[in-house]
Structure formats: C-alpha cells, structure tokens
Design brief:
The protein is α+β, with helices and mostly antiparallel strands and 336 residues long. Helices cover 30% and strands 36% of the residues. The longest helix has 28 residues.
C-alpha cells in the first residue's frame, strides 16, 4: 500500500471515530445523562452566511403618524479596506441599504437620489462631509425635506484563518468586520435627531479534500457585514426620528390657498390643523462663524388640510392669520 493511500485511510478512520463519538454523545443525551447537550442537538443548525438573505432587517413602525420626507446621502468610506477596488460602489451600496430600510419601516418618504443631486450637487451628494447647514436648509426648502441622513463607513476589514493537512485537506474561513455610523439631521434647524454607530460581521468557509471541493470565498461578504452593521442600529435610529414631530414647508400661496410640501405619500389626514411658523434668525457657531441652523420664529397663523394635489403637494385653507409666505414651516397642532 502506498503512503498516499495510508494517509487517506487514516483520515477516513479519524472521521469515522469522530462520527462514532458524536453518536455516543447524542445517545447519552437522549437517555437523560446530558440534558443541555440534548437540547443543543435539537436546535436547528445555523445557516451559513452565504445562504442568509442579503438585506437590512428593520421592524415596521406601528402608527407612525404623518410620514416624514427625508433624503439619504452617500456614506463616506473612511475605511482602509482592500476588499473592493471601487470605494464609491461601497458608499452607494451602504446608502441604498439605509434608504431601503427606512422605507420598509413605513415611517418615512425617501426622495430619489436624482432630486437630491439637482439641489445639492454631486459633491455634497457624494461626500457626506461636504454637507453644510446651508445645504441642508436649501434641500429642506426646495424638496420639502424634514431631515437628511449622512453617514460614514469607519471600518471594513477581512481576516482569514486557514488550516490544513498537506495537500489532502484544507479549510479556510474568511471573516469580514464592518463598522458604520450615521446621523439624522433636521433640514431646517440643523438639529441632530439621531447619531448611532454599530458593527457587523459575516463569515465564509471553503473546504477542499484531495484537491476537490469548494475553493472560493463568498464575494458578498463585505455587503453582508455592512448590512448587519446597519441592522444592528437602524431600529434605534428609526425610533428617535419617529419621536420627532412632523413638519412641512409652505411651497406657494395663491388665491387664498396655501400649498405645502406634503402630499398623499405623507399620509397627512384631511381636516388636520397645522400651525404655521415663520423661520427666525440664523444661528452661527461662535467658534467658526458658520451657520449651524435657524430659530423657529413666531406663529403667524393656522391652516386646515383640504386635499392632496398629488403625492408631493397638499392644498390647505387658512383658519386664522394671514401673510403666509413660501418657506414658512408647518406642523400638526398639538404635536410635541
């Protein structure tokens, strides 16, 4: 018998022994000798990461009230990962995952990237660090946005553990770790509604015996790790944003009618009373001199929701007050 056959035979014997020991442990558990082991054996085996859905998990919000219009910017990729040569693609994939999760929560209207690009320009849309309070206010006024979401990929790193027995048996495990942070910013005042960060991991295994088997590592590892990081914090972000009162903006005043930037997609109930406020003075950072937000000024009157013009526009009638202007902020009466 050749040495190669002897080695193969030895491997088969070891595998058989391991199977026999496992069988013995299972039988002992079924007889009540080791109850914890029996329970563990009855538990369903965890599916490999490569077989799990490639998506962000978010809990739908029950009765969220009027849906807030928000925009999501590309996430800045500050990691030093060599996982992908296209760093912009990682940024865009993260933004799209967050957008989808916010939509699935049922609490928000997420506007399209193309609309954001027209208002903010590609520079601000491509790099969250380029967003200024002035840009946020501009997007809020022209697109009726209540908030903007920005974020950063701070870590995306892969480690590999490899074990083997010569050229006969090889096992390789790749682990991808991601860390993501995001912020939700009020597009009118510049207030930070939520600031969270989280980590996510994903693994992929490959095994070869005598040169045969699976040689490849799951190429979606990076996305899976990023999506899990987002999943680990998105419910907290949604809860904090939902806790903020809904608001919109007066788009136009014409012939006694007031049009606001909230349509059928916002689910604003007909007959609801809205309080109208004029924006106050700009607030500047005393250290940098930059505008960081605006005060909410005095109440100028109240409106009643009459009808939806389309999915982005609603017409209202004045209940009291006058002199309503484009850019005035509206909020549901009694909302905290």
């Amino acid at each position: 018998m050749s040495s190669k056959r002897i080695i193969v035979a030895a491997l088969l014997v070891l595998a058989a022994c391991a199977g026999q020991k496992q069988s013995t442990r299972t039988e002992a558990s079924s007889e009540g000798r080791s109850e914890p082991a029996a329970k563990k054996a009855e538990e369903p085996q965890k599916r490999p990461d490569s077989e799990s859905p490639l998506e962000v998990v978010v809990k739908p919000v029950a009765n969220p009230g009027p849906r807030k219009r928000i925009g999501v910017l590309n996430f800045e990729n500050a990691s030093r990962s060599g996982w992908s040569n296209d760093r912009d693609a990682i940024s865009v994939a993260t933004r799209d995952a967050v957008s989808e999760a916010l939509l699935k929560s049922g609490a928000f209207v997420v506007i399209e990237r193309e609309q954001l690009a027209k208002v903010l320009g590609e520079q601000a849309l491509g790099q969250s660090g380029a967003l200024s309070p002035q840009s946020a206010a501009k997007a809020g006024q022209l697109l009726g946005l209540q908030a903007l979401v920005t974020g950063k990929i701070t870590d995306l790193n892969q480690t590999t553990n490899q074990q083997g027995f010569g050229g006969y048996f090889n096992s390789r495990t790749a682990t991808m770790r991601a860390r993501v942070s995001l912020r939700v910013i009020d597009a009118t005042t510049g207030e930070v509604w939520a600031a969270e960060s989280a980590e996510g991991t994903a693994e992929s295994e490959s095994t070869t015996v005598m040169g045969g088997g699976n040689h490849t590592i799951d190429e979606s590892l990076g996305k899976r790790a990023l999506y899990r990081a987002i999943s680990n914090m998105i419910d907290k972000v949604v809860a904090k944003a939902v806790g903020k009162p809904w608001s919109g903006t007066v788009a136009k005043v014409s012939k006694g009618k007031v049009y606001i930037t909230a349509g059928s997609d916002a689910a604003l109930p007909t007959g609801a009373t809205l309080v109208v406020r004029r924006l106050g003075e700009e607030i500047t950072d005393p250290g940098t001199g930059q505008v960081i937000g605006r005060e909410l000024g005095n109440v100028v009157g109240k409106l009643q929701v009459a009808d939806n013009v389309n999915d982005k526009l609603t017409v209202c009638v004045a209940v009291n007050g006058s002199g309503f202007n484009s850019g005035d902020v509206v909020a549901v009466e009694g909302a905290k």
